[in-house]
Design a protein that fits this description.
By secondary structure, the protein is of the alpha/beta class. It has helices at about 10-25, 40-50, 60-70, 80-90, 105-115, 125-140, 150-160, 190-195, 205-210, 215-225, 265-275, 285-290, 305-315, 315-335, 345-355, 365-385, and strands spanning about 1-5, 30-35, 55, 75-80, 95-100, 120, 145, 165-175, 235-240, 245-250, 255-260. The structure holds nicotinamide-adenine-dinucleotide (NAD) and magnesium ion.
């Protein structure tokens, strides 16, 4: 039985992970669950899975969470706040599912890596912000990083380590999001419209990132660090059907691709069971029903976010941290009705311009720079009112 921890168990990835685990209950033992504020769901997950450790980040829900869980599971340790999360991240698991949203997931993931736990990572922001240092830490501690993000999971499956020098390029596909075919003025886009993704049901932050295409820019950066390629080797291709998730092109002319239905439980199942495969989805991918697979180049004029991400990556690690922080603030501000949709990418660009690039040498420096970039982004948002 694999001993599992789920950081972010009440989110879209967390819920899908529990669904996959329940499909094969004799293979996995969930020891630890972590969530921020949805304590009711966390309590029911903890009791159902009979876990040993629970962390509810928001302290206002701590007493209720603890008493409800301990009524049924008297020996379960219930903790709260960031310090509680770090305490359970220090336990060694066979696999930690890193599914917190935003840079908030980075230090918990690094702590888990340092404890020797393998990581199935959905939390792309922690790779984006942790960059080479994140990958180095995994190598140093001899732990595996298995990407859950569907495109990276696809590339991971077909990335031939023995042919690294024969890899010409990789391609991450993108559905194009809700506005790929729309002529709507970006200033008029409502929160509900932006959250309405055509192919995937996801958390709010990544849904907005998909609507601005920042998600694909962040994924390009994620792939750059994960697969240790040159920036020019990473392509983005619009593929509205979301059936092909990633392609690796080899120098002999072979292009390997991974196809599946757009269902995150498939890459999650792969990541949980890696390196073997376990039966999960019995409903077959029927290409005759899908009938056509279409491909388009990204529209850089309409979506300037991808070029902004490319530029930040060329500038280096510190610009990438600022970009991510500004995006987190801008997305939250849009969701709260403080700014219009068209301002999201503009604010990110303004924040990057205001922060001079510098060398980053520790995780503490990443957190400091993230904080500074957030403050600048907050100031710009306040002026936008
Ligand atoms: P979500 O908003 O649905 O869930 C986020 C989870 O993180 C929740 O359980 C929440 O309680 C927890 N959380 C939030 N802030 C926290 C904090 N400060 N400390 C501890 N826990 C905290 O998000 P999601 O859609 O599940 O996405 C999670 C991550 O996976 C993101 O990085 C996203 O980019 C990535 N991802 C998601 C999908 C998807 O299909 N949803 C696909 C690919 C990648
Ligand atoms: Mg993805």
């Amino acid at each position: 039985m694999k001993k599992i921890a789920i950081f972010g168990s009440t989110g879209s990835i967390g819920i899908n992970s529990i669904n996959v685990i329940k499909n094969n209950p004799n293979l996995f033992e969930v020891d630890t669950l972590v969530a921020k504020s949805n304590h009711r769901l966390l309590i029911s997950q903890a009791i159902e899975l009979k876990v040993k450790n629970v962390v509810i980040i928001d302290e206002e829900f701590y007493q209720e969470t603890k008493s409800e869980i301990n009524k049924k599971l008297p020996n379960c340790q219930v903790l709260s706040s960031f310090s509680g999360l770090i305490e359970v991240a220090k336990i060694k698991y066979d696999l930690v599912i890193s599914a917190i949203v935003g840079i908030a997931g980075m230090i918990p993931s690094i702590t888990a890596i340092q404890a020797g736990s393998n990581i199935a990572i959905a939390n792309k922001e922690s790779i984006v912000c942790g960059a080479e240092m994140f990958i180095e830490e995994a190598k140093k501690n001899q732990v595996k990083i298995i990407p859950i993000d569907s495109e990276h999971n696809a590339i991971f499956q077909i990335f031939e380590k023995e042919n690294l020098d024969k890899i010409s390029s990789i391609t991450l596909t993108a559905s194009g999001g809700p506005f790929f075919n729309s002529n709507i003025d970006f200033a008029d886009i409502s929160v509900a419209q932006a959250l309405n993704h055509p192919n995937w049901q996801m958390g709010k932050k990544i849904s907005i990132d998909s609507a601005t295409m920042m998600n694909k820019g962040l994924e390009m950066i994620e792939a750059f660090y994960l697969f240790e390629l040159k920036q020019e080797q990473i392509n983005i291709l619009i593929h509205p059907q979301s059936i092909i998730h990633g392609i690796v092109e080899y120098s002999d002319g072979s292009n390997l691709a991974v196809m599946s239905k757009p269902d995150m439980r498939i890459p999650i199942s792969y990541s949980l069971n890696y390196p073997i495969r376990t039966a999960f989805d019995q409903t077959k991918l029927d290409l005759t029903k899908i009938a056509k697979l279409e491909f388009f180049p990204p529209n850089d004029k309409k979506f300037s976010s991808i070029n902004l991400c490319k530029e930040a990556l060329r500038n280096g690690h510190s610009s990438v941290i600022s970009l991510n922080a500004a995006n987190e603030i801008a997305v939250q501000s849009f969701l709260e009705g403080k700014i219009s949709f068209d301002k999201i990418v503009k604010i990110i660009s303004q924040v990057i311009e205001k922060i001079e690039a510098k060398k980053i040498t520790s995780f503490a420096e990443i957190i400091d720079l993230d904080k500074r970039a957030r403050e600048i982004a907050d100031e710009i948002v306040a002026k936008n009112k």
